[in-house]
Design brief:
The chain is mostly helical. It is 56% helix and 0% strand. It is built from three helices and no strands.
Length: 80
C-alpha cells in the first residue's frame, strides 16, 4: 500500500502552475486538500492523473470553442 502523499510545501506551491494565477498560496493548498479528499490514492496513479488532465483540458478547449462561436454584438460605426 503506497504511503499517503505529504501536503506540498510552500516552495512547491509557489512553483506550481497555480502560482502564476490569481489564486493565493492558501487557496492553492485548500484546492489540493480538496482534491485529495475527492480522489484519495488515485492521485498517486499516473494513468488517473493523465486522464484527469486530459478531461480538464478537453473541457477548457470545448468551453473556449463554444465562447468563440457566440455571435459578437455589432459595434456601431464611430461618429466623426
Amino acid at each position: 500500500m503506497p504511503a499517503a502523499a505529504a501536503a506540498p510545501s510552500a516552495r512547491q506551491v509557489r512553483r506550481s502552475p497555480v502560482a502564476g494565477s490569481r489564486a493565493s498560496r492558501q487557496t492553492a493548498r485548500k484546492r489540493l486538500r480538496r482534491l485529495e479528499e475527492l480522489f484519495g490514492d488515485r492521485l498517486n496513479d499516473p494513468a488517473f492523473r493523465f486522464e484527469a488532465l486530459l478531461a480538464l483540458r478537453t473541457r477548457a478547449l470545448t468551453a473556449d470553442a463554444a465562447r468563440d462561436r457566440r455571435p459578437r454584438p455589432e459595434t456601431p460605426p464611430a461618429e466623426t
